[in-house]
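Students often ask why we bother predicting the structure of a whole assembly rather than each chain alone. The short answer is interfaces. A chain on its own may look different once its partners are present, and contacts between molecules only exist in the joint model. In this exercise we take two input lines together and write out one structure for the complete complex. Read the inputs first and try to guess which parts will touch.
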Amino acid sequence: MNLFADAIAWIFAPERLEGSVSLPLAIGQHLAYTFVSVVVAALVAVPLGWAIGHTGRGREVAVAVSGAARAVPSFGLLVLLVLIFGVLHKPEAAVVSFVLLAIPSILAGAYSGFEAIDRRVIDAGRAMGMTEWQILWRIEVPLGLPLLIGGLRSATLQVVATVTIAAYINLGGVGYFIIQGVPLRDFTQILGGALVVVALALVLDGLFAVLQHLVVPRGVSAGRTPDVRATPTRRRAVVEPATE
Amino acid sequence: MTWVLDNLDLIAALTLEHLRQCLLPILLGFVLAIPLGWVAFRFRLTRGLVLTVTGLLYTIPSLALFAILPTVLGIRFLSEANLVIALTIYAVAIMARSISDALGSVDPAVRQAATAVGYGPWRRFWTVEFPLAGPVILAGLRVAAVSTIALATVGILIGVENLGYLFTNGLQRRIIPEVFAGVIAVMLVALVIDALLVLAGRLLMPWAPRRTAGRRRRLALRLGEAA
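Now the answer. The structure tokens for the assembled complex follow.
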């Protein structure tokens, strides 16, 4: 456990604020890569996922894509794109690979959020004379939001993990301290970097967890069954119980 | 393409090595997840605990987990044990949740019927609940197997040679086909293992509905992915 104390001392040592790669700079890079990649991926995947969820068309393709995506080794995709783009365009190549890795989760979150909605709610909207546009924005989007946030959450965590690995191709980020510590056999630095990465992932995960609870519309959360085991065989709940 | 043809034996050897390293985490993860998933399903108190802890473990990026495990367990950083244990942890994290969900998907009336005709808890679990939960458990096992195979490539960063070797070696030597072959080989291995699991499921659970896509999708969404 002494190693942990050393690692924590390493994190808070004044030297971390100095040098060519300071810890706050590395954290900033890590967050910036993650944020940009997830936002770009969301701009592509959310409209697409909503279109699939609303029309029900192209579902099989989306299912196949998100299934196959799990088999893609993220490290391999990163290296492949870096080689294809050329060494001069490393950041661009890396961001493209992060975006590609983030899209399937967000896509799945967007369309399955719509699919989980009780068809009767949508039919009721239509019967009341809502236009398709109103059904989309006033029924489907709000009710599908918790699952969409869940998809964004998975995507963000995946990107945080891949940005860590991307230190291997000299992209910076907190993974730098781990990768650079290996040849130096500096286990204090390796562990210190790892703890920062873990803290980063946990904080982001926690933020999304809170957000996921906040976006559940009030009427829905009131009628939500809290325990899976207590639900009857035929589910009555409007949305799937959100991930905790 | 010529690189691939010239190095088929290297790719084959690395593929076998890759499979060998992945099988133990998948099997071990499955076996360990059964009691954990049951505990999470059965008691309200432990449910939150187990699902929170496994969820948090799953959140830890792989490279960070490789760095933390040696300190906690006293193993070597650059070792296969480190990779295998880390992969097992991720597999358990995925499957504990899916087994808990799977047990929850069993119709309570069936459970009560089994109790009513005199099944004890142990026999009821193995002969009634576990088989009926089978299709959903299989879905979780497939997710875990495929992610483990893809994730194992990161092992090359802690000096464990498998298909990930093609990525680092290809990067150093700037051979695009080598890296591409690595990505394809990993995906093929994952695809084959996935197909074998589906086949095993059909043989072992002939009563199961053929289409569990809906459940799998929801499960996959909840599980997300790690890298």
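Check your guess against this: Chain B is about 80% helix and 0% strand.
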